[in-house]
Model the fold of this input.
Amino acid sequence: GQQLNQSPQSMFIQEGEDVSMNCTSSSIFNTWLWYKQDPGEGPVLLIALYKAGELTSNGRLTAQFGITRKDSFLNISASIPSDVGIYFCAGQLSGGSYIPTFGRGTSLIVHP
Amino acid sequence: NAGVMQNPRHLVRRRGQEARLRCSPMKGHSHVYWYRQLPEEGLKFMVYLQKENIIDESGMPKERFSAEFPKEGPSILRIQQVVRGDSAAYFCASSPIAAGDYNEQFFGPGTRLTVL
Done:
């Protein structure tokens, strides 16, 4: 089955710094999704990418769908304390039941 | 418009007991998905249901686990004869249309199951 490698596993940064995390896959996807999970809550969709090469922004967040369709990255600029949480990438393949495959997550801690 | 609701939020069971997890999808959503999350891991798909139908149960263990989404009422994930390895957070998600491209799943807050 498909496997997603998400890195880094965790990040400890100072408020105001930029953050970058990425996901790579052993096979191609048609859609890449980035979620954020706050402690004790369910994941919330941040950005969805539908085309290879697509670059999409949502406020201070920017994500890109890799040209090879096997990777994606998420950047957070000028981090703030409320960015703390776990960020998950997920890849989705068209056809079948479209169930996304999730990465293991990147835990982000922002020091004020 | 209330989001996806799950209850209970926390559930403690002893080995051998049954666990029943409930999920009420967002209003107007007729597609429900269940995922399991182990500590420091991503979400693993278990089962996808529409009203009164199981569409995809490829991620659900064949024994002790079952799921339903009746015409009326919440979706239920049922775990019989729980074992310690069942301890995890179980998340439900719902969507307004069938799973596919451009279809967002909205997640509930999860049920944290602890098996003693």
Remarks:
- Residues 91 and 110 of chain B are 4 Å apart (CA to CA).
- The radius of gyration of chain B is 13 Å.
- The first strand of chain B starts at residue 5 and ends at 7.
- The interface with chain A takes residues 4, 33, 40-45, 48, 55-56, 59, 91, 93, 99-110 of chain B (CB under 8 Å).
